[in-house]
Design goal:
Strand order of the largest sheet: 1-6-11
Helix content: under 10%
Structural class: mainly beta
Low-confidence stretches: none
Strand content: over 45%
Number of strands: 13
Order of helices and strands: EEEEEEEEEEEEE
Shape: flat
Distance between the termini: 18 Å
């Protein structure tokens, strides 16, 4: 998923793929194993596994960038 926002709730989800992004050409590029950008949203009971390869500022195993969101009982294996 690229982004999630404004009262989105993600439950019981998983991703088991590689996220590989080369040198970004602009601003606002977010890379995450489950979600790249999460704003005013929640993730519950979810996980991500795999490789995160990113040459940028905002990356993470589960979420690339979190703004006013909530994550509970979720994790990354990689």
């Amino acid at each position: 998923m690229g982004s999630a926002g404004e009262s989105t709730t993600i439950r019981n989800s998983f991703s088991s793929s590689a996220v590989i992004i080369g040198k970004p050409s602009g601003f606002g590029i977010y890379a995450g194993g489950l979600v790249g950008y999460l704003k005013n949203a929640s993730i519950f009971n979810s996980y991500s596994s795999g490789e995160i390869g990113f040459l940028g500022n905002y990356s993470g195993g589960l979420v690339g960038y979190l703004e006013d969101g909530y994550i509970e009982n979720s994790y990354f294996i990689g």
